[in-house]
Amino acid sequence: MYPLPCLSGCYCYYSIKDDANTVNCSHNNMTQIPDKLLTDTEQLIMAGNNIEKLDYINKDLQHLKLVDLQRNNISKIGLEAQKTLLSHADNLVLSHNSLQKVSSILQSDFQTQVWLSNNPFLCNCGMMWMHDWLQNASNVMEKANITCAGGKWNGEKSYLIP
User: Fold this and answer.
1) Residue 73: Cβ-neighbour burial (10 angstroms; 0-12, 13-18, 19+)
2) More confident site: 41 or 157
3) Cα(150)–Cα(139) distance, integer angstroms
4) Domains of the chain, with CATH numbers?
């Protein structure tokens, strides 16, 4: 690993093994993704912070291979942030957050691999598209751990995928 200039509290490096520039700001009590990241960032690791919502992602980050946002407290992802993440990142990890719903933009023809497991999804008529979509979505990982936390099933641990 070769260190790179970085934001305060983050660790930035080039990894020969992954052939990637990585910005690791995990477990830093951050409440948002930093705006000023190296534009050649390929792996952005923000796991274990205190991010509650994503409204903005820098669109100059054209080289993203991985965005790891697991184990935050994300309950809302704005439409523009979703579009940016899905069109720029190859892998998007949103597991272990507080997402109750996601936009149907996920159904679009993005090639991004997405992790959505262990979120308290609200299963109601408005989210029926997700159940149907997950049946055939090959880019969603850990489908068996995508469950309903409330709604039609009254808090029982019902699986979105039968």
Assistant:
1) middle
2) 41
3) 25
4) 2-159 (3.80.10.10)
What six digits make up the tokens of 144? 């068996």
> Do the beta carbons of residue 147 and residue 121 sit within 8 Å?
yes
**Polymer length of the chain:** 162
Runs of H (alpha helix) within 72-155:
79-88, 128-136
Mean confidence (pLDDT) of the chain: 88
Location of structure tokens 């990142």: 89
Sign of CA dihedral 108, 38, 65, 115: negative
Q: Could you list the beta-strand ranges (E) of the chain.
A: 2-3, 11-15, 20-24, 43-45, 53-54, 66-68, 76-77, 91-93, 113-115, 121-123, 140-141, 147-151, 158-159
Q: pTM of whole model > 0.70? A: yes
Per-residue model confidence as pLDDT tens digits over 28-48: 999 999 988 888 999 999 999
